[in-house]
Write a structure and sequence with these properties.
Mean pLDDT: 92
Number of domains: 1
Low-confidence stretches: 1-26
Radius of gyration: 20 Å
Helix content: 25-40%
Number of helices: 14
Strand order of the largest sheet: 6-13-12-11-10-9-8-7
Order of helices and strands: EEHHHEEEEHEHEHEHHHEHEHEHEHHE
CATH architecture: Alpha-Beta Barrel
Largest sheet: 8 strands, parallel
CATH superfamily: Aldolase class I
């Protein structure tokens, strides 16, 4: 298996992790006690991850306005906390698709995690397993889905694209179900790839020693050279998709289908009408359509439609445990984090991911106490009585 070697790159004095073959993993120092926030993890990751990979992870589409707005929108939501409430018995426990979890939090699908750390997706899976939290595996994973399934006892979902090769997609879904994948998140916001100018300037491609193993086709391009990753994976998306394709996907599996990448109430209703059991409110991390709304700005309207029909998940700009509280009050059943997982990987592998999850869980617990609430169910019940936009 390809591993990473810590080397000095060019004239830079700081060390980077670059992909090499046949080297054993080099241990990183334990995370210092001064790492107390996701921003601290991000700073460490930026120093460790090779520059073009870091740009890939942090980039948004075009002018990155949606990327910036996604974080800012959560901070505009005020918490009208309650006083004199006994919060000594509070809990973050909730249920997603029949599985009880300790906090309404999961790892969102992020591509090519071995660019952040040599253990990649398996490190994330182990950290999620230890925390008892779900992980959604990207179809652009650098680790075989069976290996990731074996690395966690917690719920494992998989993100998929309905590709131009419907037979390949059907076979992948059935392979994943046989391996123990518990739900599928089908991406709805990618009829074509978004334009990310950082990647264009860098000539980004799949690094040597890595491969997008779950989407390989014999004799097909791999994204290591030539047309690059976008061209190599052009067959994995399809601009002709309609809700009929979601209905077909539902027919291929007994597992729940979540439609990921929605921002409109009418699309949420269409997802459930097509047989989906979940709606995932997302703007793809600001990486697809620049100018798309922040998820915090559209969540409430979408969750209102989903109420009584299925599960609502939201991602995009979640950076604090208080954001989890805000999202639950707006109607989400759970929140997903993407870049913070990569920051944890880049900062310290499995330990870093575990630290990111622990930070958010701890902050959420304190936020509940300070807000005078005792459970996610109570947060949802209070809703706009608890969380309101600044006026």
């Amino acid at each position: 298996m390809a591993r990473s070697l810590c080397l000095n790159i060019g004239n830079e004095s700081r060390k980077k992790w670059v992909v090499c073959a046949d080297f054993p993993p080099m241990p990183r120092a334990p995370l210092p006690s001064s790492v107390v926030s996701l921003a601290d993890l991000a700073a460490l990751a930026a120093a460790n991850i090779e520059r073009t990979a870091w740009d890939y992870f942090r980039s948004g589409a075009w002018d990155e306005t949606t990327l910036a707005r996604s974080e800012a929108a959560w901070r505009e939501l005020e918490i009208h906390y309650r006083g004199m409430v006994d919060v000594s018995g509070r809990t973050g426990r909730t249920t997603l698709f029949g599985r009880e979890i300790p906090c309404p939090l999961l790892a969102a699908p992020t591509a090519m995690q071995k660019m952040a750390h040599p253990d990649g997706e398996c490190a994330t899976a182990r950290a999620c397993s230890a925390a008892g939290l779900p992980m959604c595996l990207s179809s652009l994973s650098t680790t075989a889905l069976e290996e990731v399934r074996a690395a966690t006892t917690a719920p494992l979902w998989m993100q998929i694209y309905i590709s131009q090769d419907r037979g390949f997609t059907r076979d992948l879904v059935q392979r994943a179900e046989a391996a123990g994948i518990e739900a599928f998140a089908v991406t709805a916001d990618t009829p074509v790839w978004g334009i990310r100018e950082r990647d264009m300037r860098n000539g980004f491609r799949v690094p040597d020693g890595l491969s997008i193993v779950n989407l390989e086709r014999a004799g097909g391009p791999t994204g290591h050279s030539g047309v690059g990753i976008g061209g190599a994976l052009s067959w994995t998306i399809d601009s002709t998709l309609t809700w009929k394709d979601v209905e077909q996907l539902v027919s291929w599996t007994s597992r729940p289908i979540i439609v990921k990448g929605l921002c409109r109430p009418d699309d949420v209703r269409a997802a459930f009408d097509s047989g989906a059991e979940g709606a995932w409110i997302s703007n793809h991390g600001g990486r697809q359509l620049d100018g798309a709304p922040a998820t915090a700005d559209v969540l409430a309207g979408c969750a209102e439609i989903a109420r009584g029909l299925g599960t609502t998940i939201v991602d995009g700009g979640i950076r604090r445990g208080i954001d989890i509280l805000r999202a639950i009050a707006l109607g989400a059943d759970a929140v997903a984090i993407g870049r913070p997982i990569l920051w944890g990987l880049g900062a310290g592998g499995e330990e870093g991911v575990a630290r990111a999850l622990a930070m958010l869980r701890g902050e959420f617990d304190i936020a509940m106490a300070l807000a005078g609430v005792r459970s996610p169910a109570e947060i949802r019940q209070l809703g706009s009585g608890l969380v309101r936009r600044q006026t």
